[in-house]
Design brief:
6-stranded antiparallel sheet, alpha+beta, single chain, globular, 6 strands, 40% helix, 3 helices
């Protein structure tokens, strides 16, 4: 019985550490994207941030960038999203999460949000925790899934 509890504890510890690392990685990727954006300029940065094989995509982690109206300026996982206004885009529970993201960035400058979205790796709808930061008038975001 003792070995069962040790195994369960180890799995919980590993899962929690992996998830916590995923959130740290998401936040770090946003910070890296902002630094890059400022160093190379808007046009080059937005192009590079939209490269699904680029340095701003790591498995399920990818950077997105929006303007204040909800228009997608860069998307590391889906080029079809770029150039379109997603202000009213809703998640699996009906939450207008892009609107929420923009409101969060405009009010706080930075923070975390949760919503349900399809994980590009597992192809399943999962809870996603997204770090959001406003910089230079645009909103950068990157999220990690609970099951990371």
């Amino acid at each position: 019985m003792k070995s069962f509890f040790v195994t369960v504890f180890a799995v919980v510890l590993l899962f929690g550490t992996t998830y916590a690392q995923g959130k740290k990685d998401a936040e770090a990727l946003v910070k890296k994207a902002i630094t890059y954006y400022r160093s190379v300029g808007k046009d080059k940065a937005l192009l590079d941030l939209s490269d699904p094989r680029g340095k701003f995509v790591d498995g399920e982690l990818y950077v997105t960038v929006y303007d204040a109206t909800g228009k997608n300026l860069a998307h590391g996982a889906n080029l079809k999203m770029v150039g379109k206004n997603w202000m009213e885009l809703k998640d699996a529970d009906g939450k207008a999460f892009i609107k929420e993201r923009i409101d969060l960035a405009n009010k706080q400058g930075t923070g975390w949000q949760t919503y349900k979205w399809t994980n590009p790796v597992s192809k399943q709808i999962e809870t996603k925790y997204t770090f959001v930061e406003k910089a230079d008038g645009v909103i950068f975001a990157c999220g990690a899934y609970r099951n990371r």
